[in-house]
Structures are given as structure tokens and as C-alpha cells.
Amino acid sequence: MEAAGERFPKQRQVLLLFLLLGVARSGWEPRRYSVQEETDSGSFVANLAKDLKLGVRELAAREARVVSEDNQQRLHLDLQTGELILNEKLDREELCGPTEPCVMHFQVLLKKPLEIFRAELLVRDINDHSPEFPEREMTLKILENSPNGTVFPLKKAQDLDVGNNNVQNYVISPNSHFHVSTLKRGDGRKYPELVLDKELDHEERPDFRITITALDGGSPSRSGTAQIHIVVLDVNDNAPEFSQKLYDIQVPENSPIGSLIVKVSARDLDTGINGEISYSLFYSSQEISKTFELNHLSGEVRLIKKLDFEAISSYELDIEAYDGGGLSGKCSVSIKVIDVNDNFPELTVSSLSSPIPENSPETEVALFRVRDRDSGDNGKMICSIQDDLPFLLKPSAENFYTLITEGALDRESRAEYNVTITVTDLGFPKLKTEHIITVLVSDVNDNAPTFTQTSYTLFIRENNSPALNMGSVTATDRDSGTNAQVTYSLLPSHDPHLPLASLVSINSDNGQLFALRSLDYEVLRTFEFRVGATDAGTPALSSEALVRVVVLDDNDNSPFVLYPLQNGSAPCTELVPRAAEAGYLVTKVVAVDSDSGQNAWLSYHLLKATEPGLFSVWAHNGEVRTARLLSERDAAKHRLVVLVKDNGDSPMSVTVTLHVLLVDGFSQPYLPLPEVSAEEAPAHSLTIYLVIALASVSFLFLFSVLLFVAMRLCSRNRARAAWVGRCSVPEGHFPDHLVDLSGTGTLSQSYQYEVCLTGNSRSNELKFLKPAFPNLLAQDPERETEGNPNFPKSLGI
Ligand SMILES: *[C@@H]1O[C@H](CO)[C@@H](O)[C@H](O)[C@H]1NC(C)=O
Ligand SMILES: *[C@@H]1O[C@H](CO)[C@@H](O)[C@H](O)[C@H]1NC(C)=O
Ligand SMILES: *[C@@H]1O[C@H](CO)[C@@H](O)[C@H](O)[C@H]1NC(C)=O
């Protein structure tokens, strides 16, 4: 009771004290009533009149009333019936909360006399609230591998009801890992604990949800649920594991720097930092760390240095993978370098002899070595040179070759060879190296100088100035250097009579020929000699050529009159019968010119006549004929001046004076008189002259035969002195083989030459003699007109 009274506020305490005094006075035990919460208002609670053993009227008379301690009029006393009625619905949870039992104290107050009865109303609980978890979802983080039986306390559910209506039990949804146990705390409240039945595996199931249900003990029972989110925390329980224990890699040696060799990969089933893998080389030699680079994160192994099969052909790498928790795994990478044909063949010349002398037989020119740093077929080589060169390759030892000449070389046809040695390996693709060896061929004096012509003909005009350059001869030498230095010289003449040294000289350096003295066509028309060209090699080689000098004629001789003789000592008078017809041949002026060609082409003109018109001179042949019939009136003596002129550029001429005597007949003897004074020519003078002419021709013929015989003797007999004395020209010593057909000076000399000539060419004998007797062979008109009257050899008498 006291405990109950203390619950009320102060002013109520005063009243309570007062009441207690009254109760004490009255001495009543409190009356107890009970009512279920949530009972409807107006419901009957108890019959007070009966309990207080008072009549209904007395209650009314004494103004009975119900006073509750909190002054709330929850109860009402019906004075008509004396029954205690609920004034309102009572909510136990509101009135008492969790306090159990829930008792409401009240008093029944009576006046006159004042009387107080104490009473209690017990409000009984009903199950009108469900258990409720503080959160709809709870998160529970649990390390994987937590041992069996580990307990995880859970937040309890709350139920406003009390006693049995409060939470009595927890259950969870079926699962393979947990069960729930319901425990009771000191205050009697029940709370759940989750117990692990089976270890969790993060890798298997990182999280899941279960449902917990709280049940109260009411009838019917009420329940409340919540979700438990189980998060399985990872534990580093897995070591990284490589997908392959051994990586077998083949890498071509020419892989570029930076190329990917292999990507190793390890797996870690853990998550988070426990699953973070980093790679490192477990063991690395200096060579490996210089050659490869491992990416710690990606596991890529890349090349950082050129591979060289020839240096290192394989690598072994051990790679480790660590996870964040410190667990590790290992793998091996075996890298085999594949040979690639990346080395060019190399060629080293060990010895080279150049230049090599031409004409030397098979000669070793060069010795060289070839090498290929690749292996297998990539390192096998083939050596070759151009086909079109006179060289051969000969293997001499392993990888040694000699370059030799096929035979003698000729510097003059080719002085330099570029021999390209090609070394090709057998790899794929083929690599080749070319090396050019320049072989020089040195000169040997194997070529004599050669004249540009085998014979030279030089033309020189007579009367040249001395030391005239006549021309030159040239010889070339196909050798080189001193072997090609040509020196010219005059070779001794075959003809000992040719005064060569006084005629010509040669410039030994350039082959220019000079005439040393003035030449005379009429003396020497042509001559030949040999020149030599010698090189400066050892031994020296030489060759020779023939030089023929032809002297060209100049018009330097005036015509020479053979007939009639002009040296007044033997004056000549032609006799012409007065009966001669017109055109009668009086005489013929015979002249020669020791020049030749045009210069000896003579023409005859009548320059002066005692009686113009009586005689005419034929320009071509110098025949003097009567132009008309003679008459008695014509004077007996006539003097004719005939001009004989050559046809040279600057013509030269001579005049001939003829004396003509007109006679009546050849029967009249004619006496040649120094001064022809016969007024009349005898009629028969012609006959007399014919006889004289015949006699002189016969004499000349005999003379010729004699000379011919003498010439024959001359040629048989080599005792030349006598012969030369008779046959040679007075002013020169010309050998008989020289061609000199010119007439010189006198008729007799001219004949001497002609006879000398025929001595060497008998077949021409008559031919030469024939034109010597034009009158005897008589008046062949064809011959007169066709024959070149000025042909120098056609002498007429
Ligand atoms: C935990 O319980 C499960 C199932 O009962 C059992 O298989 C496992 O071996 C237990 N583990 C331990 C560590 O006792
Ligand atoms: C050889 O080669 C050199 C240098 O390249 C060149 O000057 C010369 O003309 C070549 N000779 C021949 C014969 O090809
Ligand atoms: C005239 O000339 C000829 C020939 O030259 C000669 O034989 C002759 O003796 C000469 N006569 C006189 C008189 O000089």
C-alpha cells in the first residue's frame, strides 16, 4: 500500500495521508477487483453496494463516490444500482507499461459520516501487441572460416505485452549454416543468438540473408520478423595460382625491343587485397634482368634488349605471384630463342695482289675468308663472282677462297676489273654481301708501236724551201707508260744511192718529216724510204712504215725547141715547092718541156711572118703548112717566128725562127746558104728533101739499135762505171730504178733516157719508140687528132 501511495503526486499524497488516517480508522481491508484491458466502457466491474454491505439508498444518501488516485474518472459508481462501471476502455500498456501486475487503486468515499473504503482494480493483460524488431534488417559481418559453434548475439524483439504475451521464442528461416537459440536475460526478457553450425566460405557465398521470427506466448501467438544480412568476410585463405606451371615460349631473335614475350597470369580466389596479385622475378640473373622486363601488375614479360641467338639461345625465368596477404605462387617460363637469318655473311680479304702483270698465267689475286654468324642453313654460304670475268673462285680451306685469274690477261683490252664477290647464305630470306675487289692489270711491253698507215704518200711541190714540213707519220702503242713512248727514226735506205740523210729528216718525238733541201721535179720525181717507230719498253719493240714522197711539178722550165735547132750555127731553111698545094706541110716545129702535165702542154702560134696569110701554124702539133696556093708573085724567102708556149700557171714560152725558101722544084739542087737568097725554089726540091729525111731517119734507127744493144750489155754487166757514165744524167747520180722520164735539154739525152728505161721494161720497148717517129708512121690522121699532142713522152720529129 505504501509503495503504491508513493507513486502519486505530492498533492495526492496529502489526500492519501488523510485517507490513510480515515482507513486506519475504519480498518477495512482493500477490496480487489480485476478487469481485462480493452474492456468496453460501461462494462460492469463490481457491485459495491453489495460489497460494502450498504443499501442502495444509503449509498445515495451518503453521496458515495469513487475517487481514483490519479483523479482520472476511469470508474463510475452508479448510485441507482450500486454497481461500479468502467467509464472508459483501459489500456494496460498505457496505464502500467511493463509493470506487472497493473493495479489501479481507488477509494470509495462516503459522507455523513465520512467513511473511506479502499479498493484496487487489477487490469489484466491481453495479447494485443506483436513482437517487433528494432530494425527491419540487421547486418551481420562474419569472417569466413569462423569455427563451428561461434555465437553471434542478435538484437531482441520487443513486445509491449507482458508476461506470457511477451516474446517467448525466436526462429530463423532454414539455412545450412546457422541455428538460433533463445536465451533469457536477467529481467526475464528473451533474446536470440545465432549459432554457426558450418563454416562460411567467402569464395563460395559472400553474403546471404536469413529471416528471424520472434514469437510471443499469447494465444493466439503473435510474431514479428526481421532480415539478417549475413556478410561473409574474406580471409586470405587462397594462395595465388598460375594458370600454367610452365610456360614454353619460342621467340625469334629479331623480335623488336618492347615486344611481348609472354603474359603469365595467376588467379587468387580471395577478394580485395587478398586477391590482389603482383608478380616478380623469383630469381633473376643479371642477363635476364637486362633482357626482360616483368610488369608487376599485368604479368607481361617484355623484351628490353635485342636477343641474339648466337650469344644466348635460351632463358629460364621463375616468376612469383604475391597476393596482398603475403601468399605466393610460382611458375617457370622457358624462353627459347629461335635463330633468324639476321646476320649478313661477312667477307674479309686476307691478301690482295694488285696490279697483276698482264700476260702472266693463272695467278692468285686475292685470298679471303667468309663467315656467317647465324647457325644452320642460315649460316651456310655460297660464294660467286660474275660469269663474264676471266676470274675463278677456288675454295682453299674451310671458308677460305682464292680468287685466281683464268689465264693471261690483256691490259690493252681491259686494264681494270671490278670483281664483285657475292656471298649468299641459305637462310630465308637469303642475305647476301657483296665485296668488290678491283684488280688492276699492269702493263707489259707486248705491243709494238703501230703506224696509222702501212705506207704514207707525201706530196711536195718542187723548188720547196729547205726545212719544209712535208707531213708527219704517227705510230701508236697500245701499251702504257714508257712502253708506249714512241720514238721515230729514219731507217737506212735499201738504195745506197739515195742520199736520204741529205733529203729528209724526222722529228723523233712527233714523227714530223722535213725536206732538207729544195727538190727538183725534173731531177727526182719520187722517192721512198722507211721510217721506224720504237717504244721505250724493255725490250723495246718497233715497227716500220714506208714513206713515199711524190714531188709535184712546177712550171719552172720553158719549152725547149728540138727542131729546128736554134743555135744559129746551123741555120735551117725549109724548102717549099712553088707548086705545093694549100695545106702543104712545110715543116714541124718540135719542142719539149721538161715539166709535166699542164706545164708541159705546149701550144704553137705564128708570131711573125714575112707575108702574113701564107703560112699557118697548127697550135696543137706545131705543123707549119701553107695556107694557100703559092704564086709566082710570092717572095722566095720567108722568115717565120713561131711562139712555143706551155700551159702552166705562169706560162713560159720560147720563140723559133723558121726560114722558108720557095723553090720551083726538088730537081734544082739546093745548097744551104748561110743567107738564104734563092729567089725561087726549084720544083723538085721536095723530092730531094724526102730523100734527106729518109736518110736521117735510117741513121737514127741504126743509132737506136746500137744504143739498145749497149743497154743490154749494161744490164748484164754489173760493172756499172762505164754504163753510168753513159746512161746517167750529167748533173745527178740517180739510180736506174728511179722513174724519171723527163727529157732533159737535148734530143740525144732524151733518147738516152728512153733507152735506159726500156732496158728495164722490154715489153714497152716499141711503145716508147713508136712515138719517136711520128713522120715515119706517117700521117695517120686519127693518131694526130686523138693522141695528146702534148703528152710529154710523145716526142715528134
Ligand atoms: C563444423 O561443422 C560441420 C558440419 O557439422 C562439419 O562438417 C565441420 O567439420 C565442422 N568444423 C569444425 C572445425 O569442427
Ligand atoms: C670499278 O669501280 C670503280 C669505283 O667504283 C670505278 O671508278 C671504275 O670505273 C670501275 N671500273 C670498271 C671497269 O667498272
Ligand atoms: C748547135 O746545137 C747543137 C745541139 O746543142 C750542137 O750539137 C751544135 O754543135 C751547135 N752548133 C753550133 C754552131 O754551135
What does this molecule look like?
- There is one protein chain.
- With 797 residues, this protein is mainly beta.
- The protein folds into six domains: 30-124, Cadherins (Immunoglobulin-like); 129-235, Immunoglobulin-like (Sandwich); 237-340, Cadherins (Immunoglobulin-like), CATH 2.60.40.60; 346-442, Immunoglobulin-like (Sandwich), CATH 2.60.40; 450-552, Sandwich (Immunoglobulin-like), CATH 2.60.40; 560-787, Sandwich (Immunoglobulin-like).
- Helix content is 14%, strand content 38%.
- The protein is built from twelve helices and 50 strands.
- Strands 42, 45, 48, 49 and 50 form a five-stranded mixed β-sheet that branches.
- β4 and β5 (83-86) form a beta hairpin.
- The longest helix is centred in the C-terminal third of the chain and has 32 residues, at 685-716.
- The radius of gyration is 84 Å and the shape is rod-shaped.
- The termini are far apart.
- The model is unreliable at 1-9, 20-27, 668-683 and 719-797 (pLDDT under 50).
- The structure holds 2-acetamido-2-deoxy-beta-D-glucopyranose (NAG) (3 copies).
- Residues 1-26 form the signal peptide.
- GO terms for molecular function: calcium ion binding.
- The chain crosses the membrane at residues 686-710.
- It comes from Chrysochloris asiatica (Cape golden mole).
